[in-house]
Design goal:
Layout (H helix, E strand, L loop, with lengths): L3 E5 L4 H13 L4 E4 L9 H4 L7 E4 L2 E4 L1 H11 L10 H27 L6 H18 L17 H11 L1 H8 L8 H11 L2 H4 L5 H15 L1
Parallel strand pairs: 1-2
Antiparallel strand pairs: 1-3, 3-4
GO molecular function, one term: glutathione dehydrogenase (ascorbate) activity
Catalytic activity: RX + glutathione = an S-substituted glutathione + a halide anion + H(+)
InterPro entries: Glutathione-S-Trfase_C-like, Glutathione-S-Trfase_C_sf, Glutathione_S-Trfase, Glutathione_S-Trfase_N, GST_omega, GST_Omega/HSP26, Omega/Tau-like, Thioredoxin-like_sf
Length: 219
């Protein structure tokens, strides 16, 4: 197998989801940390979008986290992290798209926007989580611990980094965990205990310290 290199950043949730996929599949890789506040001068030669993650596999380069994860799924199919049945596979892609276009998009505006009282964004984030609870997890049998059933999937690994960093939203932006999200909390407790997730987990204190330094540098 050709050596895999992952250009990553410890705070980037998109790079995190790729690291999780590599861990879940047991794929050895070299992680190259990129300081996104002080990128290498040649970084655009590595990442045409100037972002992480970027995966190098031999002579191949892949970027954009959802695409990187599907590349890993197709190139290293065991253990599988996507269903084989077309409708279930489509469902997985719908939720991965929801994560990118709704949950993480709203969070990015909330964290990096200039509004000191972002009530509308906090409301939007609450609505996103309630949608996940009712349109996602409530339609699963109560006995299924993961998003698509009994097995870990790319959907779980896509959403998890948001939950691992939730203390940042609570501390810096006044986010409060909404009521009525019991299934979502149970789901995340199950994902957080998975060996692949635990192997690279960071504590809330770690994220608060790192984001605190970013806030100080910004202002």
């Amino acid at each position: 197998m050709s050596q895999i290199q992952l250009y990553s950043a410890i705070l980037c949730p998109f790079a995190h989801r790729v690291r999780l996929t590599l861990q879940a599949k047991g794929i050895p890789f070299e992680s190259i940390e990129i300081d996104l506040q002080n990128k290498p001068t040649n970084f655009l030669e590595i990442s045409p979008y100037g972002k992480v993650p970027v995966l190098k596999h031999g002579d191949n380069r892949v970027w954009e986290s959802a695409i990187v994860n599907e590349y890993l799924e197709e190139t290293f199919p065991d253990p599988p992290l996507l269903p084989t049945e077309p409708m279930q596979r489509s469902r997985a892609r719908i939720w991965i798209n929801f994560a990118d276009t709704r949950l993480f998009a709203t969070t990015g505006k909330l964290l990096y926007g200039r509004d000191p009282h972002p009530r509308a964004l906090l409301t939007e984030l609450t609505e996103d989580l309630l949608f996940m609870e009712h349109e996602g997890l409530h339609k699963n049998p109560a006995s299924t611990p993961y998003w698509l059933g009994t097995g870990l999937s790319l959907v779980d690994l896509t959403f998890h980094p948001w939950f691992e960093q939730i203390a940042v939203l609570e501390h810096f932006r006044g986010f409060g965990w909404p009521s009525g999200l019991d299934r979502l909390q149970e789901w995340h407790a199950a994902v957080a205990q998975h060996e692949a997730v635990r192997s690279i987990a960071n504590s809330p204190e770690f994220y608060l310290e790192c984001y605190g330094r970013l806030v100080q540098a910004k202002f």
